[in-house]
Amino acid sequence: MNAKKLVLLVLVVFIGFWLYQDPQGLANVAADGGGKLWTLTTQLFDSVISFVSSFLDQTN
């Protein structure tokens, strides 16, 4: 069994155990992580838009 499959198996077992032991805690972590991921995504796109806009303003 290669390392990728082993890591994936351990991750699935860990999440399954966490879901069984503390489903509310797992839900809270997932919600917090989703919210932070959305914030980072919007910041990234805002930065890219600002960069492209400033680049286009300098070329004109």
UniProtKB/TrEMBL annotation:
Protein origin, superkingdom: Bacteria
Record-given protein name: Uncharacterized protein
Lineage: Bacteria, Bacillati, Actinomycetota, Actinomycetes, Propionibacteriales
